[in-house]
Write a structure and sequence with these properties.
alpha+beta, three-stranded antiparallel sheet, 8 strands
Length: 319
């Protein structure tokens, strides 16, 4: 009899230990326990620590309340300016209402992942390529609002969404590289032209100052000679006065008018009415003045070979 009582007591204690082990639950600090009694939600959400449930009657679901980092798979899309891109992102979210995360949605992690992918594709289609590359902060905010709107009903709060990488085709990369190179070349030329303009203004001011003091120009010339002679080279510097160049320039400008005057033909002077006209030259040798030698008659041209010489007598008649 006593032995039977001992066996019954041991069996009861063992059953109680098994029951206690099945009823005892431990909720961690970063978790919350949602209790379902016979399939109905209990209003009290169990906090961290030791808690008890009725085995077979109640069921405890633990929900992680930490911030979850979830990568969004890369999505292919076409931007508003018809450029094919591949964009991936990362999303940070946490559960703020454990009961809604258990009751309202079957798997809140999968739901947030699918919502993030569809929202990312929508953002790609509404944005330009320049916005994806340079204005990501605004796109991140828009993407966060698109995901957070349905997630509020699931007891999930979207903490942050970041676009991680934007992949472009190779042809687009080369085009953008050429555009950036051309833009840098344009800026370099503008800066160079601006520097030339400022230098010309400063040189003009320096020239106006030196024009008032001729000695300043000589000092500047000597400084240039010293700067050239400072290095060990075979350069020969010969100062040439600027005033001499100006003198030669003025002389060259004045020379063409004088030469034109020298080359102009002289006009004959008008005849004086009081002066008699000069006498005509004699037309015959007899009209020459006395005491002057009579000019010799012109010689006849020599006959060509094979022709008879011309004489003053008549030619003999042939018999």
């Amino acid at each position: 009899m006593v032995q039977e009582l001992v066996v019954a007591a041991v069996a009861a204690v063992s059953a109680g230990a098994v029951y206690m082990a099945a009823a005892a639950k431990v909720v961690k600090q970063y978790e919350r326990g949602v209790v379902l009694r016979l399939g109905r939600l209990r209003n009290d959400v169990r906090g961290p620590g030791f808690t008890m449930v009725l085995p077979g009657v109640e069921r405890l679901r633990k929900v992680n309340m930490q911030i979850v980092t979830m990568p969004v798979p890369a999505q292919d899309g076409i931007t508003r300016d018809n450029v094919t891109v591949r964009v991936d992102a990362v999303i940070y979210f946490k559960v703020v209402d454990a009961a809604s995360a258990v009751v309202e949605v079957e798997d809140y992690r999968f739901a947030v992942s699918q919502m993030a992918q569809t929202s990312l594709r929508s953002i790609i289609g509404k944005s330009d390529l320049d916005d994806l590359l340079s204005n990501r902060e605004k796109l991140n905010q828009g993407l966060e609002l698109m995901i957070d709107s349905p997630a509020v009903g699931w007891g999930v709060q979207i903490d942050r969404v970041e676009i991680k990488d934007v992949s472009l085709p190779e042809t687009m990369k080369r085009s953008m590289a050429r555009q950036a190179e051309a833009d840098r070349e344009r800026r370099a030329r503008v800066i160079n032209a601006d520097a030339e303009l400022q230098a010309s203004k400063k040189l003009a001011e320096a020239a106006s100052e030196m024009s008032t003091q001729p000695a300043a120009l000589q000092l500047r010339l000597l400084q240039t000679v010293v700067a050239v002679a400072a290095e060990k080279n075979s350069t020969l510097v010969l100062p040439f006065p600027v005033e001499l160049l100006r003198f030669l320039e003025r002389a060259q400008q004045a020379a063409p008018p004088q030469a034109a005057v020298d080359r102009a033909p002289e006009k004959p002077a008008p005849p004086d009415p009081a002066t008699p006209p000069p006498s005509a030259e004699p037309s015959s040798p007899s009209a020459s003045a006395p005491g002057q030698p009579r000019p010799a008659p012109p010689e006849a041209p020599a006959p060509a070979s094979g022709q008879p010489h011309a004489t003053g007598s008549k030619p003999l008649a042939r018999h």
